[in-house]
Every structure is written in C-alpha cells, then in structure tokens.
Amino acid sequence: MYTIRHFYRNPRFALGDLALGACSLFFNPYRVCKTTYGETPLRVFRELAAAAELSAADRYIELGSGRGKSCFWAATFIGCEVKGVEWTPLFVWLSKTLFKNGQFVRESMFETDLTKATVVYYYHLDEQRPPFETMQPGARLITISEPLESEAFVVLKTLDVEFPWGTTQAYIHKRK
Fold first, then answer.
1. Cα–chain-centroid distance for residue 72?
2. Least confident window among 15-19, 28-32, 88-92
3. Among 28, 81, 104, 111, whose CB has the most other CB atoms within 10 angstroms?
C-alpha cells in the first residue's frame, strides 16, 4: 500500500510496477532464485537514497539488482543514471524489458567496474567482495546488516531499517 500511495502518482512508475507484479504471477522471483532472492522495500530504499544523498548528478549501481525495482525507482524519482548488475538471466531480461530508463546487465558483481559509480548499493557482505576499493574518492556505498570493514572507507551514517523479515541496520560509507 505504501508504494501505491506514495509512488503511483507517477504513471510511468505505476505502469512499470504493475507490469512487474503481473509478471510475478508467471515468474515468481522466490522460486526462480530460491536461495538468495530478497527485495528491498521501496519505503526502505527511499530512506537509504535520502541518507546517501542520492541525486540526479549521481551514477548509481545496484549489485544484485534482482528484478530492477530499486533502479527503476531511482531513475524515475531521483533522475540519476542507474545500472543494475544481476546474475539471474530472467531478472535481467525482465528489467531490460520493463524499465527503459536504466542499464541492466548480466555480469558477476565481483567483476563489475565500479570506477565511475558515485553511489553503490550492496545488500550482502560475504567473504568474496566486489571491487569496492576501485570506487572513486567521495563515492558512497550503502550496505545492509553490517558495515564494510576497509581502511578505504569511513561510515558516515547508520540507520535502523525495516525489512519484511525484521529490523536491521543500514550503513552509508564514503570512499576516502
């Protein structure tokens, strides 16, 4: 209901989101990607974008973009350049088909070029990490549940955020 109430005033967004919902009747994302799928609610993403000061001047990359909903939101409501990086072919196809105001690629997030990104969103922090150290000085990194432990970054903000599974922390980092 939050998404409808706050974002469906934009017809382009409403149409894209409804089309994505209709596709889910045939391609359930939780069945397509059984072990690793989870979507950041748009109300949470809106908070994260504000905390990271995402603006139209930014180049936003989402690592593990899933169906591309957050990228679509950022391109539509913030007006920034977006790139969704996803490994699941169906999700990349859906994103490219439904959301024309962004770039969606099927590639490994561990090999993605982050040198031109000004804001990167990464939900998981695993032992193997994307090449965050290649981000330019001043670029922001958003992580969920734990901060990035790297001397190349400083944590600017910590926020409590609500996911369907519970409350956790989000961290806004800045590349030194």
1. 9
2. 28-32
3. 104
